[in-house]
Amino acid sequence: MAATTSITPEILAKYEPVIGLEVHVQLLTETKAFCGCSSKYGAEPNTHICPNCLGLPGSLPVLNYRAVEFAVLASMAIHCEVRERSIFARKNYFYPDLPKGYQISQYDKPLGEHGWIDIPTPAGSKRIGITRLHMEEDAGKSIHDGFPDSATRTYVDLNRCGTPLIEIVSEPDMRTPDEAYEYLTRLKEILLYTGVSDCNMEEGSLRCDANVSVRPRGQEEFGTKAEVKNVNSFRFVRAALEYEIERQVEVIETGGRVVQESRTWNSQEGRTYSMRSKEQAHDYRYFPEPDLPPLIVSAEWKAEIAKSMPELPEARRARMIAEYDLTEQDAQTLTATREFADTFEASAKKAKSAKRLTNLYLSELTGRLKAAGLELAQSPVTMDGLVVASDLAEKGDLSSRQLKQIFDIAFEKNEDFPVVYEREKPQQISDPAELESMIDQIIAGNPKQVEQYRAGKKTVAAFFVGQVMRLSKGQANPALLNELVTKKLDA
């Protein structure tokens, strides 16, 4: 939770935040960007390295073909124009975990430019511009042992050094921390659908730097920005932005001046701290990488890469709403991941009613999984089992009460739905004469409700249906029961 400042909501409302995000995404290649070393996460320190990773004299970079394909695919997925001829550059700076003393990146001629992502806001859909998507290599990792004690030692692990990255830089189009959160959520969703990255923030596969400034409302000119570095969850990005906006407003309101700097987020304290003054582009002394030729993405190569583009989340949601008669919220849930959307659609094609299947998944399965602390892959009721349940319900062979009972037993005994159904075989009463006898009994015992119905209060029919269901111990055929109750009351 973000620390609070002394700024009141009234003062805060006088200012408009301006937010832009820089997102670094590790590409899901087997090897690094410019050498054949493994890019697999979690190996023993300094075991996935070579002379190229170590920046030793005489080693030369060789561009990873697969990394280019992934970068182009990501560019197209976020509507960027893919440049036919892009240039790699050296970005010069010194960190202990950057053995070459420079990072191979792209500067004035990036791979992709002028893209966009639409995000939901309370006022409707909003388009966030994307300035650029460029390729680069990752640095190594410094590990600080003993911090904050005086006996601190720093170790350097270069396994990550040279891992292929794309950096996606947004336009400063976001005006609230919530918009930034939605942008990151949609961007991650798109990248996961394309399969170019696993976007695992805990392992550093996706990292976010947030640029934020404030200005008096109505002012065109941007304020001085601060950059909050390497925040490791979307929730913390939102909290860090909330804190930083209030901090900057407080600085201005108390007569101070916001300085351009890099800041770090402390999640335990809920506040940001200054790290260093912010570098300008000229501080990096960019110049073209002499050991790499220009990257040429021909129209033919681009068209070949485009063939691997999956149906993206927004398009898939729109199609599923039309095809399966889903609500927007249902479609959002069912397309949260490409893997589950594929699983659901395969099941929907087998089921008699996709709508019924959706309702059972959302009403009967997800709640039980959450209560049991299980993922879908651990569910005793499989998607094929859910199809069986859906079809039985659709045919009217099981009442909602019987369905719930079978689901309860399935979770209790860790068995799939068809197994429990075949063993229990709950009998449904579908004999009209038997149901009419029960209905007559309930009608005779409730003359007041009968009068209400005949006086025009037709909703009272639900009362009689419920009473017969109780009398039949949930075994009455619901569709037939509703029909017979109405017929009897109208007689």
What this model shows, in words?
It is built from 17 helices and 16 strands. It has 491 residues and is of the alpha+beta class. The protein has 3 domains: 293 residues, no CATH class; 112 residues, no CATH class; 59 residues, Arc Repressor Mutant, subunit A (Orthogonal Bundle), CATH 1.10.10. The strands form 4 sheets. Strands 2-6-7-10-1-11-12-13-14 form a 9-stranded mixed beta sheet. Strands 5-4-15 form a 3-stranded antiparallel beta sheet, with no helix packed on it. It has a two-stranded antiparallel ribbon with strand order 3-16. Strand 6 and strand 7 form a beta hairpin. Helix 7 crosses helix 8, helix 10 crosses helix 11 and helix 12 packs across helix 13. The longest helix has 20 residues. The radius of gyration is 30 Å and the shape is elongated.
Topology:
Blueprint: H1 9-12, E1 15-26, H2 51-54, H3 65-77, E2 81-82, E3 85-86, E4 88-92, E5 102-106, E6 112-121, E7 124-137, E8 141-145, E9 153-157, E10 164-170, H4 177-194, E11 206-216, E12 226-231, H5 234-253, E13 261-266, E14 271-277, E15 287-288, E16 295-296, H6 299-306, H7 313-324, H8 328-334, H9 338-350, H10 354-372, H11 383-395, H12 400-413, H13 417-424, H14 432-444, H15 447-454, H16 461-471, H17 478-490
Parallel strand pairs: 12-13
Antiparallel strand pairs: 1-10, 1-11, 2-6, 3-16, 4-5, 4-15, 6-7, 7-10, 8-9, 11-12, 13-14
Helix pairs in contact: 4-5, 7-8, 10-11, 12-13, 14-16, 14-17, 16-17
